[in-house]
Design a protein that fits this description.
Chain A: Keywords: ATP-binding, Cell inner membrane, Cell membrane, Membrane, Molybdenum, Nucleotide-binding, Translocase, Transport. The complex is a heterotrimer of chains A (about 375), B (about 230) and C (about 260). With about 375 residues, chain A is an alpha+beta fold. Chain A has nine helices and 20 strands. Chain A has two domains: about 220 residues, Rossmann fold (3-Layer(aba) Sandwich); about 130 residues, OB fold (Dihydrolipoamide Acetyltransferase, E2P) (Beta Barrel). In chain A, helix 4 runs parallel beside helix 5. The radius of gyration of chain A is 22 Å and the shape is globular. Chain A starts with 6 loop residues before the first strand and ends with a strand. Helix content of chain B is about 80%, strand content about 0%. Chain C is α/β, with parallel strands linked by helices and about 260 residues long. Chain C has two domains: about 140 residues, 3-Layer(aba) Sandwich (D-Maltodextrin-Binding Protein, domain 2), CATH 3.40.190; about 90 residues, D-Maltodextrin-Binding Protein, domain 2. The longest helix of chain C has 26 residues. The chains are: A alpha+beta (about 375), B mainly alpha (about 230), C alpha/beta (about 260). Chains in contact: A-B, B-C.
Chain lengths: ~375, ~230, ~260
């Protein structure tokens, strides 16, 4: 079984103008996002893991030692898949040849624990592109081929370096669903470098926060998002991502009923989804307000019982609260940004039972 | 009277010899020049530009300087003489082999430079991609670097060939004008001019002009096509 | 006061400029002389004597006889031509570039069989034995010393035997280089090239084995009206010039 320590990384050294000292562990499944501002060393960490760049340190992946004091495996001996910011397809090869480069042009027969060729083609919708030259693909198509190519190298770890940042918004929205499907379908852990919070909220299971060459926190996404000692929760656009399961669909009003830990959300849904479908829900801190009594008459759909877990003052005007959903406050966490005046007027304190009014929650299919 | 009849067997010997020399020189240069170009493009050694400068020397040095040093190097007191001693000769000068060596040195920058440029233009990325797809450095070189540098190889080969055909000063200085062995086209033309046989000189010189023009034009067109295909 | 000084200097300057302008053409005429490469050192020495004696200047250009001749036919500004043979000066006159009756033999080249190895060259027996791999000869088609060398080998009856050992220098200077670097064990060079050089072994080829290598000079039409050019041609026959020519290993025509 995979454990938290399936991927262990620690690098230390001088990188161009700044010192890098990055150490973190990530689980052997799901998407771990490396998040931080541009130039904080995220990409360098990724390159070190792939062996493309050499700094002192250790790197262990699924029980294999890729680097330690005595070992430095060259990049081609590391079972890694790397998706670069630009697709970087080989321009002198067709899409098919690009996809099959790692297997020397051969389609390997399906086997246990192996990423199947047809599966990848299907997952990324590459069927109609196979004979084309990379020059004749759109930006989004190229990046899909690059992802497929990396997957077909049968990696134990997939590294993605801002794979969407070179694409326009529309293309990015076209690729995101593919990435979400990958996550569902394949058991390969992913380290995903990004400086875009939106991608983190939508894709990540785990989060490694980086700043100026170092790791400031790492852990499950929700825990990091709602840790008010970290800068993320204090940002104006702070939000939590909740994993939800479809429970039902209200045909009359076009509303989805979604189960999260400790609450049921009603969210406008464009189409009917099978009960049991897993979705990701984003709830912004600014979209949550607090009421002591359950309001009798309100247009807000989701008024959910919760308890205040913790509170922190942001500045002289505002506070950020972490709420636990459910009467007992033991469910999923939410963030709520309120004024200090409200905090005082309502006489709130940690542990207070309240009603969280969620003005909006956005859906990301999973 | 056709041109073929107008030219004596002596001239055809020179033409054949020139083509053989240029072809062999080009082949050797591709084999020798590619690793040099690769190293120059990839190495981070601080002294690599010094090596690059040495490779480029023939571009700047007068052929007479090169010819003189080659004469000494190929001769009995140089390594060339030692090599020639293996089969009982005393010098590599005045031989086809000596000419090949001279041409390789002389045309080296014309082959190395375009290939180096092509390797550099390619950047690190394709090789990094290949490495992360489990390709060994050797496989990455043959399946990625070489195909991507194809325009550079083509330019290098064409320039190397053309430049060897056109080479004069070095051949004059180490060749000894031996028919069928070292008397190449450019030397033959020179002799015709010197002996006032201007009709023959004109035919050959005109031929060279047409050849050079065709080479440059073809190269430009091919490069253009390749670039378009690469986009 | 200041004004006065300036005026005085101004006048002095003007006078000097005028003097220079008047004296220039009268005292120091100039002539462009094309010189065959083998005569380079001797020509420089003669030019120095010439300017000391006559106040004229000879500006020397060196090259192979063939090249220089081609340049003359292409309107090069040469006024005197010191060739390495007697063909080109004759041709110059025949084709109208040279002044009729102005050509004469200023030097006679001497052929030497030379090797940079000490005991290799003894006499004609060295050629007959043929105990060597390469023999350097100037291109007989273009270089007079080459023609002479072939004549000498034919006269000795060794040409056919040596034919395949011959390597050609494009000119006599290159032939010398082949021998000096020992790429060829021996070769026919000009005696003038060995002036001041005692190294190796040598045999001066007897004059009766080859036609004399006459180096002719000719006054070119471009120089016909130039005092300096005519003076230089005359100076070549002066005892001082002849002494220099002989010093460099050339023969001179005895009866003149």
């Amino acid at each position: 079984m995979s454990s938290r320590a399936d991927i262990e990384v620690a690098f230390k050294g001088q990188l161009g103008g700044f010192p890098l000292d990055a150490r973190f562990a990530a689980p052997g499944h799901g998407i771990t996002a490396l998040f931080g501002p541009s130039g904080c060393g995220k990409t360098s960490v990724l390159r070190c893991i792939a062996g493309l760049q050499r700094l002192n340190g250790t790197c262990r992946v699924g029980g294999e030692i890729w680097q330690d004091e005595n070992t430095f495996l060259p990049p081609h001996k590391r079972r890694v898949g790397y998706v670069f910011q630009e697709a970087s397809l080989f321009p002198h090869m067709s899409v098919r040849s690009n996809l099959l480069y790692s297997s020397h042009g051969k389609v390997l027969p399906p086997a246990e624990g192996r990423v199947g060729f047809d599966e990848v083609i299907d997952l990324l919708g590459l069927e109609h592109l196979m004979a084309r030259a990379p020059q004749h693909l759109s930006g989004g198509e190229r990046q899909r081929v690059a992802i497929g190519r990396a997957l077909l190298s049968q990696p134990r770890l997939l590294l993605m370096d801002e794979p969407l940042s070179a694409l326009d918004r529309q293309t990015r929205d076209e690729i995101l669903p593919f990435l979400e499907r990958l996550h569902e379908a394949l058991a390969i852990p992913v380290l995903y470098v990004t400086h875009d919070l939106f991608e983190v909220e939508r894709l990540a299971d785990e989060l490694v926060l980086m700043r100026a060459g170092g790791v400031i926190a790492s852990g499950p996404l929700g825990a990091i998002q709602s840790d008010t000692s970290l800068p993320l929760a204090l940002q104006r656009e702070a939000a939590v991502s909740l994993d939800a399961v479809v429970k039902g669909f209200d045909e009359q009003y076009g509303l989805l009923k979604l189960d999260v830990l400790g609450a049921v959300f009603l969210v406008p849904g464009r189409q009917r989804l099978e009960a049991g479908t897993r979705l990701r829900l984003r709830v912004g801190a600014g979209d949550v307000s607090i009421a002591l009594e359950k309001p009798a008459a309100t247009s807000i759909l989701n008024v959910l019982p919760a308890r205040i877990r913790s509170a922190r003052t942001v500045d002289e005007r505002e506070m950020i609260l972490v709420l636990g959903l459910g009467e007992d406050g033991a469910g999923d966490g939410l963030l709520a940004r309120i004024t200090r005046r409200s905090w005082d007027v309502l006489g709130l304190s940690e542990g207070t039972a309240i009603h969280a009014q969620v003005k909006s929650a956005s859906l990301a299919s999973r | 009277m056709s041109i073929v009849q107008a030219l004596s067997p002596e001239i055809w010997t020179a033409v054949r010899l020139t083509i053989e020399l240029a072809a062999l020189t080009t082949a050797i240069l591709l084999v020798v020049g590619t690793p040099v170009a690769w190293w120059l493009a990839r190495s981070r050694a601080w002294w690599k530009e010094a090596v690059a400068a040495i490779v480029a020397l023939p571009l700047v040095l007068p052929p007479t300087v090169l010819g003189f040093y080659l004469l000494v190097t190929l001769g009995p007191s140089g390594p060339g003489g030692a090599l020639a001693g293996l089969w009982g000769a005393r010098t590599l000068a005045f031989t086809f082999e000596g000419l090949v060596i001279g041409s390789v040195v002389y045309s080296l920058p014309f082959v190395v430079q375009p290939i180096r440029n092509a390797f550099e233009a390619m950047g690190d990325r394709p090789l990094e991609v290949a490495a992360t797809l489990r390709a060994s450095p050797a496989r990455a070189f043959w399946t990625v670097a070489v195909p991507l540098a194809r325009p550079g190889f083509l330019t290098g080969a064409v320039l190397g060939f053309a430049h060897t055909v056109g080479e004069f000063g070095v051949v004059l200085m180490i060749g000894g004008n031996v028919p069928g062995e070292t008397k190449v086209l450019s030397v033959a033309i020179y002799d015709f001019v010197e002996t006032l046989r201007w009709r023959e000189a004109n035919i050959l010189a005109g031929g060279m002009v047409v050849f050079a023009f065709a080479v440059i034009l073809a190269m430009t067109l091919i490069e253009k096509r390749m670039r378009r295909a690469g986009e | 006061m200041l004004m006065e000084t300036r005026v005085r200097w101004g006048v002095a300057g003007a006078v000097m400029v005028v003097c220079a302008a008047l004296a220039g053409p009268a005292a120091a005429g100039e002539t462009n002389v094309a010189v065959a490469a083998n005569f380079t050192e001797a020509a420089k020495e003669i030019a120095t004597l010439f300017s000391a004696e006559t106040e004229h200047q000879a500006v020397l250009s060196f090259g192979s006889t063939g090249q220089l001749y081609t340049q003359i036919t292409q309107d090069a500004p040469f006024e005197v031509f010191l060739a390495a043979d007697d063909d080109r000066p004759a041709k110059a006159i025949a084709e109208g570039y040279g002044v009729e009756g102005s050509s004469f033999t200023y030097a006679i080249g001497k052929l030497v069989l030379w090797s940079s190895e000490a005991d290799l060259v003894k006499d004609q027996e060295t050629l007959k034995a043929g105990d060597f791999q390469k023999i350097a000869v100037a291109n007989p088609e273009t270089a007079p010393y080459g023609t002479a060398a072939v004549e000498a080998m034919k006269a000795l009856g060794v040409y056919d035997a040596l034919k395949n050992k011959i390597v050609q220098g494009n000119n006599i200077a290159q032939t010398y280089q082949f021998v000096e670097t020992a790429n060829a064990e021996l070769g026919f060079v000009a005696k003038a090239q060995l002036a001041g050089n005692e190294s190796g072994s040598r045999w001066e080829v007897p004059g009766d084995l080859y036609n004399p290598i006459k180096q002719d000079a000719v006054l070119l039409k471009k120089g016909e009206a130039n005092d300096a050019a005519r003076a230089f041609v005359a100076f070549l026959r002066s005892p001082a010039a002849l002494a220099v020519i002989e010093k460099y290993g050339y023969g001179v025509e005895s009866a003149n």
